[in-house]
Amino acid sequence: MKRIITYIILGLSLVSCAKWNETEAVQLRPVHFWDRNPELWADYMEALRDYRQTEHFIYYARFDNAPEIAVNEQSSLRSLPDSLDIVSLTNADNFCAADREDMTVMHDKGIKVLYQIDLAGRQEEFSDDAALDSYLDATIAKVKEYGLDGWSFTTVRGTDPAVSGKHARIIEKLSQARKEGQLIVSEGDPHFIPAADLEKLDYLVLPTDQLENTYDVRLCTMEATALNIPADKILLAASVDGILADEDKVEHNAVTEMNLRVVSFGPFAGLAVYDLAHDYYHQSGNYLTLRYAIQTLNPSK
């Protein structure tokens, strides 16, 4: 009898365990602050928009939008630091429904979102002027459709007139298409942009993210200002994964050190941060590094 009872109990346990081990889809949707306390969020948004109107150092970031599979807030525009001023979408060609949804939040925060044209990375594709014109026309239409705030483009190094011709072509078409409040930003060496077109750009991000020490950073900035580019249009660039050595050859996080050089070598307009989404969750991750940089140069903001 005891043996029968034991078998019954064991059987029930196995059935129960089997049920516990069954997979069940659970819908997880993050609860955002604006959903929990709309009134306090509205007050915060008003303060943030007021901040945009004050004189402050500009912070710009590249963002790899529209991943094939969005698995967390790291993939969301809305989760970028609120004090960013400009975000350039490196995957704008694949602007998705989630990006479109986040645009409302970005504009509420006063953050400008740009469509990036990667000329440097797609030189072969755009070697034909007709192909480049067709692509530019498509980006102009998409910027209008998505409600974006302008364009950024990466520059190509080279003394070949065809190179400067590509830059001139981009700037001409975008300048003709842009509406009030939209921006045009170049990323890369400004020496290969026709001098007459430099003044048409709102900001120029220098390629300082590729440098390893502050001596070379200073030379890069001196060469840019020698082109008569106003300091208030220049952004230095740094990768969150990078290392930058100071004058004593002491190595620092590139964002933290480059942030200080915005002032000591300028002052310039601000800082562009690359590779931001590589580390999102760590307690000392990249988003916190960027927030620290912003608060360092805009301490009352």
The number of strands is 10
State the share of residues found in helices, binned by percent.
40-55%
The structure class reads alpha/beta
Q: How many helix segments?
A: 10
Low-confidence runs (pLDDT<50, min 5 residues)? 1-10, 12-16
Strand content: 15-25%
Large-scale geometry: globular
Question: Roughly what is the average pLDDT, rounded to an integer?
Answer: 85
Radius of gyration equals: 24 Å
How does the major sheet shape up? Answer: 8 strands, parallel, barrel
Strand order, sheet with most strands? 1-2-3-4-5-6-7-10
Oligomer: single chain
Keywords:
eight-stranded parallel barrel; alpha/beta; 301 residues; globular; 10 helices
